[in-house]
Specification:
Elements: H1 5-11, E1 16-23, E2 26-33, E3 36-44, H2 56-84, E4 85-86, E5 91-92, E6 96-101, H3 103-111, H4 116-119, E7 122-127, H5 132-147, H6 149-154
Parallel strand pairs: 1-6, 6-7
Antiparallel strand pairs: 1-2, 2-3, 4-5
Protein name: Eukaryotic peptide chain release factor subunit 1-3
InterPro entries: eFR1_2_sf, eRF1_2, Peptide_chain-rel_eRF1/aRF1
GO molecular function: translation release factor activity
Length: about 160
């Protein structure tokens, strides 16, 4: 049985944390406040399939695949700004942001282009084995120690 002491302390907090779980298949945006976990938005990415044929089309397919992933990072940044920044006050509506995913996607595509207001709110960057809701659950578990610290600082 896993030690759930940190997770139990996390559930007592009322602070809202944002999660971005990004992998090669898509991105999930979620929040955690106390014991309430919510998926705000999720989208799937359908990159062009790799073709085993060489020659002239290989370069075209490679370029299309690369552009699809660049657009994935841009779309993720735009959605993060829409979901985690209040449009009226232009301030983040979460007290912290956790980026989760495979090393390649969360670092290369998101950390470099994320809105500066949200970049200041990043409290943890974790490697997860899964995407979507399983990745969100894993990110919450891996971040439970960090997420409980603001509560202790207030006390």
């Amino acid at each position: 049985m896993a030690d759930t002491h940190h997770a139990d302390k996390l559930m007592e907090s009322d602070d809202m944390f944002g999660f971005i779980v990004m992998d090669g298949e898509g991105t999930l945006f979620g929040t955690l406040s106390g014991n309430t976990r919510q998926v705000l938005y999720m989208y799937r990415l359908f990159p062009p399939k790799k073709h085993g044929r060489g020659g002239e089309p290989a370069l075209r397919f490679s370029r299309a695949h690369f552009l699809k992933h660049i657009n994935h990072g841009r779309k993720t940044d735009e959605l993060a700004s829409m979901l985690y920044i209040d449009p009226n006050t232009r301030q983040p509506n979460v007290c912290g942001l956790i980026l989760a995913g495979s090393v390649e996607y969360k670092t290369r595509q998101l950390v470099d282009i994320i809105d500066p207001l949200l970049k200041e709110k990043i409290v943890n960057v974790v490697d997860v084995s899964y995407g979507e809701e399983n990745g969100l659950n894993q990110a919450i578990e891996l971040s439970s120690g960090i997420l409980s610290k603001p509560k202790f600082a207030k006390e």
